[in-house]
From TrEMBL:
<dbReference type="Pfam" id="PF03837">
    <property type="entry name" value="RecT"/>
</dbReference>
<feature type="compositionally biased region" description="Acidic residues">
    <location>
        <begin position="238"/>
        <end position="250"/>
    </location>
</feature>
<dbReference type="GO" id="GO:0003677">
    <property type="term" value="F:DNA binding"/>
</dbReference>
<protein>
    <submittedName>
        <fullName>Phage recombination protein Bet</fullName>
    </submittedName>
</protein>
<dbReference type="InterPro" id="IPR018330">
    <property type="entry name" value="RecT_fam"/>
</dbReference>
<feature type="region of interest" description="Disordered">
    <location>
        <begin position="199"/>
        <end position="250"/>
    </location>
</feature>
<dbReference type="InterPro" id="IPR010183">
    <property type="entry name" value="Phage_lambda_Bet"/>
</dbReference>
<dbReference type="GO" id="GO:0006310">
    <property type="term" value="P:DNA recombination"/>
</dbReference>
Amino acid sequence: TAGSAAMTPATPTKPVEIEAADGQHFAVSFEDVRHFISPKATDAECKIFLETCRAYHLNPFTKEAYLIHYDNKSDDTPATIVLGKSCYMQMAERHPNYDGFEAGVIVLTDGKIEGREGSIVYDGEELLGGWARVYRKDRTRPSYEEVKLSEYDTGKSQWAVRPATMIRKVALVHALREAFPSTYGGLYDESEVSVDAESTARELDDYEAPRSLPRSRKAPAQPAVEIVTADSPAEGPQDSEDDPFGGEDA
């Protein structure tokens, strides 16, 4: 009956096994995600987050990935999957066609706009933005990107103390995403979001983390993953047969 059906407890969800690139192997439940990473995450968001971590071999308990759930009155804004500090570069370096990068800042100096490598801005100069080039072995031209400081500067956290470093990183992330669209999909770097990603989660002590599993000889098959972001609709399912690091990017 309808009454008895309403009283039937929800079927427990099976933990997702994650074999991280750092060698750790976890079984992580939705409750683990809500307890340690994103308290307001829905079941669907937990599922997408964990499948993304599994597909990309990310360890969510060492701040390699975050699930940021923005507060909004209507509660209709989906969570965003955000990569930690060095994950974008680590993922690029695993790709067989990655061939290095150049990146820097754009400044106004002596009335002229100048682009330079690195992230130094001298006294008397105005920081305008960042730029980056990413090279692939199988392409004759690099992916080039310029970004404007005013579009990303939140004036908070690292943006308040290291704006040149942050805008350079945003440009590099954009260029990497252009160069390797299949690798990054709808993933964001923490420099691109308007909140302090590290403040949304904490690194766990050994005794707190979900139980570690014996390392398998072969990583489990990677199911299709739909990544929901705050700024765009789902990017669409990824091919479960593709290696996210070694596959061919369009």
